[in-house]
Amino acid sequence: MNDFYPIKVSQIQKETKTCSSVTFDIPQELQETFSYKQGQYLTLKTAIDGEDVRRSYSLCSSPVENKWQVAIKQIEGGKFSTYANTELKVGDVLDIMPPSGNFYTEVETTQAKEYIVFAAGSGITPILSIIKTHLALEPNSRFKLFYLNRNAKSIIFKEEIEALRNTYFGRFEIFYFLTKEQRDIPLLNGRFTAEKIQELTQKIIHIPSVSECFICGPEEMIFLIRDELETAGLSKEKIHYELFFSGQSEEDKKRAALAIEHKFDGTEVTIIDGGKEFHFGMEDDYDNILDGALAAGADLPYACKGGVCSTCKCKVVEGKVEMKINYALEEDELTKGIVLSCQAVPTTEKVVVDFDI
Ligand code: FES
Questions:
Q1: Which of the chain's ends, N or C, has fewer CB atoms near its CB within 10 Å?
Q2: Contact 100, 43 (CB under 8 A)
Q3: Given the DSSP bridges, would you call strands 19-25 and 5-16 parallel, antiparallel or unpaired?
Q4: What is the pLDDT of residue 55?
Q5: Predicted local confidence at residue 249, as pLDDT
Q6: How confident is the model at residue 213, as a pLDDT?
Q7: Mutation to probe ligand 1, out of 80, 340, 353 (largest number of atoms < 8 A from CB)
Q8: Tell me, what's the pLDDT at 171?
Q9: Could you give the CA distance from residue 160 to residue 148 in angstroms, rounded to a whole number?
Q10: Nearest-CA neighbor of 53 among 299, 300, 305?
Q11: Residues 10-13: contacts with CB within 8 Å, 24+ apart?
């Protein structure tokens, strides 16, 4: 499951000035391995300037299209995103890990569900996949999309979204929120705020009818919307969110610094992976188990190295670690001793972690 496969790029399209969609040609014999659910992501890997760079990108295509497409927004100083937007060509081969992720609910073809979805910028990618899939497979379900961008020009997939509105006329409503362009309706100008979400829940969203809510964007936005919807009466289980990494908050930085302060000098680490044990001593240069293990020659699964994707998760079976940040694991996983190895700073003399979970 954590293997990479060489896959050819079959199409690249500029969606906005700074965002390209990239479609992959998954060979027939790999289509089952690469089958996916709406809202899942792919991890891509390539060598850039001699360095192995991996990143995870949500699929914006839907499984019903029999297509594998991601959207990559160029971020300032972003190695992979700059490469994908400026150098990558049709016919190039990238190493790709099969789809993964939990940002979905099952399709229920006979149900009439009411979905509300919130996205900011490139956070639209998994949301678009979710919208397309449920609209196509649940003929009685409806969607309301609340989509935040800087201005009309920067709206990723605008044409495709509007074409969907026409195809599924009456079942799909779109509300564009713009931060750098003024329009006549004040509600739609500027970011999501508590007041705006309250206004939405009073005028546009009928909370008791909502079946599921999906949110994708930066952490702050997700938590604000989640809290306001919960206050308005939407139950927690109906709110699903996917974070896209937008840099650490001050609080995260403090937490990370504290974990590093507690690091034990020279922990003896044992990794259990594929039923085999691998031993190494943590070097001073590395603060987390994943980096320490990779430097010592271990071959372990990882993607974002930012505490977001959970590809690197393992279970602590002996000793203690402290996580710098955690955007990926749920409370019940934490109580089972599961940690993100890319964030796990060892704080005891000996630590044993198991990747076979
Ligand atoms: S590699 Fe993504 S959370 Fe560790």
A1: N
A2: yes
A3: antiparallel
A4: 87
A5: 66
A6: 98
A7: 340
A8: 97
A9: 16
A10: 305
A11: 10/90, 11/69, 11/90, 12/88, 12/89, 12/90
- Enumerate the CATH 3.40.50.80 domain ranges in the chain, comma separated: 114-244
Residue list, ligand 1 pocket, CB within 6 Å: 302-305, 307-312, 328, 340, 342
The second-level CATH assignment, the architecture, of 114-244 is 3-Layer(aba) Sandwich (3.40)
Q: Which CATH superfamily is domain 5-99 in?
A: Translation factors (2.40.30.10)
Give the architecture (CATH level 2) of 250-354: Roll (3.10)
Q: How far is the CA of 136 from the centre of ligand 1 (A)?
A: 32
Give 10-residue mean pLDDT values along the chain (357 residues). Answer: 87 93 97 97 91 89 97 87 94 94 94 97 96 98 97 94 97 96 88 96 97 93 95 96 70 85 94 94 93 93 85 96 89 94 97 95
Taking alpha carbons only, the member of 82, 141, 131 closest to residue 110 is: 141
* Residue to substitute in 242, 311, 330 for testing ligand 1 pocket (most ligand atoms within 8 angstroms of CB): 311
